[in-house]
């Protein structure tokens, strides 16, 4: 048996799948793409997470597009965090060109064009489905970790949430929690000390500054109502294709705190709400996080630990998370160890540090009798990658240099008119477009203030009458002071916390 025949058998046996699989492309040996060595990934193992890495311009975006198309075709919804804004073309049918036909002939995969159902989403003021969450849905622990608070400061945040809970005050946005912080250090200081213990003004000041930092990165647009329901990610079109949900993040590239805040809150909510799936035949949802290094860029140790924990646990809910970045070293080792599918595009070696990074990257892949991994990493062409996955038994498949199939949808972005067309037809855009400011403690206290103002007026009239009758005393002054105290303490509230907004709506 020739070396080529041995290799084909090696790949065929390694990537054999009895269940449904997505086909990424065909294996390459000695620079030749082989028609008889398809690279398959079982749907069954796609909840085991993955990594798509490689230098700029090597084809990572097209790889994500191919994966998303295949998943959608099998009725698996996708969530794509699109930092660069170059993924939206999946909504429109592609165009067959000669180089695509030639590529697919080499790897023996029929090519056809297709479009896929898309929802465009936004964390900011970009057009699309608005994604929001309330502060109360984060809870004191997660909110403290996002702010990178120490134990003492986190304890104060827990007191704030408990105080608002005890007083049935919904905590919806950042203005709410800022107002509560101001109140407990000023007008309500005595009340807090009596019921919850002393709180240092320096501690509340630190918490307030960190909230303002988060607010300056655009988080004030994210926190509020109505909250996004994660069930709206798991939708299908009339043909049974899973929706590809694209979160447009082009305007928050310089706001890593907001990006990591959203990503962590989303994963946490998905984990909390979705039921256990066990050993399912395919995932319920697959998430692609482009430019994943932004998540970890300014993340604290506690935040990294939280991300790692959720990544470990969320796969039991049938959710796969795929990190997309230039270098695998951008992803913390604890997260990297959780990843089953690895698609490594070419890396470039311009400096000694680059060469060291390539060596480290090569060490993360299975050894092979057919490749010198570090050399292959620098010689891969555009649309080619080293691939290793997990078979149906959870065993890593052989390392295979792969010529990847081409996307069936448009390999370019949508025009503004096309974006507008999608948003106009979207039911979710209409559902989440309205910014809700429901009645909360703010409105309730306004009603109380109106009553108090009437009482003030009445007391003034009585005082005037007493003066006329030469019956002045301290009673009126005491009442007036009492009223002023009520007014001062009442006006602090915008609406804070009680129970989760979703429970309130029930």
Account of the 3D structure:
It is a single chain. About 45% of the residues are buried. The chain is about 45% helix and about 15% strand. A hairpin with a 2-residue loop joins strand 1 (about 20-30) and strand 2 (about 30-40). The strands form two sheets. Strands 2-1-13-12-11-3-10-9-4-8-5-6 form a twelve-stranded mixed beta sheet. The chain has about 500 residues and is of the alpha/beta class.
Key attributes of the depicted protein:
506 residues, alpha/beta, twelve-stranded mixed sheet, two-stranded antiparallel sheet, 19 helices, 14 strands
Secondary-structure map:
Layout: H1 3-14, E1 21-29, E2 32-42, E3 50-53, H2 60-73, E4 78-82, H3 98-107, E5 118-122, E6 129-130, H4 135-146, H5 151-166, E7 169-171, H6 174-185, H7 189-196, H8 201-222, E8 244-248, H9 256-273, E9 285-289, H10 293-297, H11 301-314, E10 319-325, H12 333-336, E11 341-344, H13 352-363, H14 373-379, E12 384-388, E13 400-404, H15 416-425, H16 427-432, H17 441-468, H18 475-490, E14 496-497, H19 501-505
Parallel strand pairs: 3-10, 3-11, 4-8, 4-9, 5-6, 5-8, 9-10
Antiparallel strand pairs: 1-2, 1-13, 7-14, 11-12, 12-13
Helix pairs in contact: 4-5, 5-8, 6-8, 8-9, 9-11, 13-14, 17-18
């Amino acid at each position: 048996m020739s070396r080529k025949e041995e290799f084909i058998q090696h790949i065929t046996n390694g990537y054999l799948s009895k269940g449904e699989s997505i086909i990424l492309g065909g294996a390459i040996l000695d620079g030749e793409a082989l028609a008889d060595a398809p690279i398959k990934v079982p749907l069954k193992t796609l909840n085991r997470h993955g990594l798509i890495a490689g230098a700029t311009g090597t084809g990572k975006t097209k790889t994500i597009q191919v994966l998303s198309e295949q998943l959608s075709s099998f009725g698996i919804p996708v969530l794509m965090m699109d930092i660069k804004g170059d993924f939206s073309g999946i909504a429109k049918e592609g165009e067959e060109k000669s180089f695509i036909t030639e590529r697919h002939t080499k790897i023996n995969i029929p090519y056809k064009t297709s479009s896929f159902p898309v929802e465009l989403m936004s964390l900011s003021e970009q057009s699309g489905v608005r994604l929001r969450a309330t502060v109360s849905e984060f809870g004191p622990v997660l909110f403290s970790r996002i702010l990178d608070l120490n134990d003492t400061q986190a304890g104060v945040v827990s007191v704030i949430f408990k105080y608002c809970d005890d007083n049935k005050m919904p905590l919806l946005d950042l203005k709410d929690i800022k107002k509560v912080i101001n109140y407990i250090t000023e007008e309500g200081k005595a009340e807090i000390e009596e019921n919850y213990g002393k709180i240092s003004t320096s501690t509340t000041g630190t918490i307030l500054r960190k909230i303002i930092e988060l607010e300056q990165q655009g988080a004030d647009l994210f926190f509020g109502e109505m909250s996004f329901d994660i069930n709206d990610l798991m939708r299908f079109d009339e043909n049974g294709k899973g929706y590809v949900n694209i979160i447009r993040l082009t305007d928050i590239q310089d706001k890593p705190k907001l990006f990591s805040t959203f990503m962590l809150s989303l994963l946490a909510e998905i984990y909390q709400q979705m039921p256990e799936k066990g050993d399912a035949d395919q995932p319920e949802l697959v998430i692609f996080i482009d430019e994943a290094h932004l998540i970890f860029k300014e993340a604290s140790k506690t935040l990294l630990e939280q991300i790692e924990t959720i990544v470990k646990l969320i796969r039991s809910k049938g959710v796969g998370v795929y990190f997309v970045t230039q270098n695998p070293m951008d992803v913390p080792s604890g997260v990297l160890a959780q990843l089953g599918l690895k698609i490594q595009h070419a890396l470039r070696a311009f400096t000694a540090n680059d060469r060291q990074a390539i060596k480290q990257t090569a060490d993360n892949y299975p050894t092979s009798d057919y490749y010198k991994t570090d050399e292959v990493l620098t010689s891969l062409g555009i649309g080619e990658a080293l691939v290793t996955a997990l078979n149906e038994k959870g065993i890593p498949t052989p390392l295979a240099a792969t010529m990847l199939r081409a996307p069936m949808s448009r390999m370019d972005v949508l025009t503004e008119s096309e974006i507008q067309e999608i948003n106009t037809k979207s039911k979710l855009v209409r559902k989440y477009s309205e910014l809700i400011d429901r009645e909360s403690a703010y409105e309730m206290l306004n009603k109380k203030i109106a009553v108090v103002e009437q009482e003030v007026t009445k007391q003034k009239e009585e005082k005037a009458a007493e003066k006329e009758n030469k019956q002045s005393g301290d009673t009126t002054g005491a009442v007036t002071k009492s009223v002023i105290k009520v007014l001062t303490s009442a006006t602090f509230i915008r609406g804070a916390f009680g129970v989760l907004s979703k429970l309130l709506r029930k």
